[in-house]
Amino acid sequence: MALKTKEEYIESLKRMKKRIFLLGEEVQNYVDHPIIRPSINACAMTYELAQQSEYEELLTVQSSLTGKKINRFTHLHQSTDDLIKKVKMQRLLGHKTGCCFQRCVGFDGFNAVDSVTYEMDKHYGTDYNKRFRAYLEYIQENDLVVDGAMTDTKGDRKLSPSSQKDPDQFVHVVERKPNGIVVRGAKAHQTGAVNSHEILVMPTQTMREADKEYALCFAVPADANGIFYVYGRQSCDTRRLEEGTIDVGNANFGGQEALIVFDDVFVPWERVFMCGEYQYSGLLVERFAGYHRQSYGGCKSGVGDVLIGAAHAISKIQGVEKATHVKDKLIEMTHLNETIYACGVACSAEGKPTPSGTYLIDLLLANVCKLHVTHLPYLIARLAQDIAEGLLVTLPGEQDFKNPEIGKYLEKYFRSATEYSTEERCRMQRLIENLTLGMGAVGYLTESLHGAGSPQAQKIMIGRLANFDYKAEQAEKLAGIKKD
Ligand code: SF4
Ligand code: FE
């Protein structure tokens, strides 16, 4: 079986024995939990679209490992065309879900781990790449979702992993056995962790010799012994527990982040892809971050399209679509959104093969892409809120509209353009609220700021890759300071 259906994916999650805590309680049936299910639906869209012929070229691809047809989310990029298709696929999924669909983190992890283990093996004579590719074949063959887990809790930020008072603030080896290792620690802000079949752990930063036990890369089943999850709260999340769907804004879909705790988890050697080779930890972080910074050029522009569409729709519902300033704002939103997408495509088109054959994006352009993503969605969201008007934050709740005494008054006083119903107005306002203030804003705004590294991380990379000396040399030649 190389491609699962959406239903098979959801069924496969039901068979897993994960320990998940949410709102202070252990969740028994997480697949049907009203707060969690929309995030499963979003991830399931990566399966659903792969079954549809019109999206086959974007969502599926021939495996470079087995030659079989696989879901693109499990693929190693073999060309710049693959890299560009990834971004287009992510934009499409942004349209279909209006949120984070969570499957890209593992995808970006595969591509980074593949090239880095290949180069490590050449250096040390190890066989990590062979192990990793055998693991990836298993992922491809079973069409699995893998959480790429990078961010450690980090404790006191001014201290290195090995100098922390609490040694568990970074995931580390606590025991070496003949058949594997035992690990302890936690990974924070893990997108889609609860919806994953597997967790691919990577180091969170460049490690030095003293931090060798923290230079770790491995994979474990998401329900392995010793793992548990604490589900992150999102603004307005308990609206999903209320009756009705209008106030949620995006009733069927949502993102997800969780804390994963590894409480002495055993990992067999065949699933260990780095263990102590600290000199390669920085390269792995840099490549993973680069791929994920490219990803945002796709997913965030896709969700941006939905927000632009919602702003246009609410302008029609409220009868202001012909106002020139409204048109001007929609154009400005589009210009900002296409800038993000253009960067995603550009870093893909400028990609190059690594020694393993797996293609890597242009790192400078990927970092420029992500740095734009840290602020342009905020500008787009501001313009959407401007067009939506103040009702965005003063609209009464769905239950008020259903109240037999006051409902008819709300129906009357919140009616706007005659072609649209009051309910349509409420629904569109709530979608804009979701994307700019509610659960959707987690993925569209705050995650745009901090996901794949906060802005300072991109600035450091841009500073390293900018090649200022070459540029100065060109200027010096033109200014007559330096001769050819
Ligand atoms: Fe994919 Fe975007 Fe979600 Fe990251 S934030 S997992 S790139 S959809
Ligand atoms: Fe993310």
Task: Describe what this molecule looks like in 3D.
- The chain has 484 residues and is of the alpha+beta class.
- The protein has a domain at 283-473: Butyryl-CoA Dehydrogenase, subunit A, domain 3, CATH 1.20.140.
- Helix content is 48%, strand content 14%.
- The protein has 17 helices and 14 strands.
- The strands form four sheets. A six-stranded mixed beta sheet has the order 2-1-10-11-7-6, with no helix packed on it.
- The radius of gyration is 24 Å and the shape is globular.
- The N and C termini lie far apart (61 Å).
- The chain binds iron/sulfur cluster (SF4) and fe (iii) ion (FE).
- Iron/sulfur cluster (SF4) is lined by residues 100-102, 104-105, 191, 295-296, 299, 443, 447, 451.
Record keyword descriptors for this entry.
alpha+beta; four-stranded mixed beta sheet; 14% strand; binds iron/sulfur cluster; Butyryl-CoA Dehydrogenase, subunit A, domain 3; single chain; 484 residues; six-stranded mixed beta sheet
* Amount of beta strand: 5-15%
Tell me the number of helical segments per DSSP (H or I, 4 or more residues long). 17
Extended strand count: 14
Classified in CATH, the superfamily of the domain at 283-473 is: Butyryl-CoA Dehydrogenase, subunit A, domain 3
Bound molecules: iron/sulfur cluster, fe (iii) ion
* Mean pLDDT reading: 97
What structural category do the secondary elements indicate? alpha+beta
In CATH, the architecture of the domain at 283-473 is: Up-down Bundle
Helical amount among residues, as a percent range? 40-55%
- Principal-axis shape equals globular
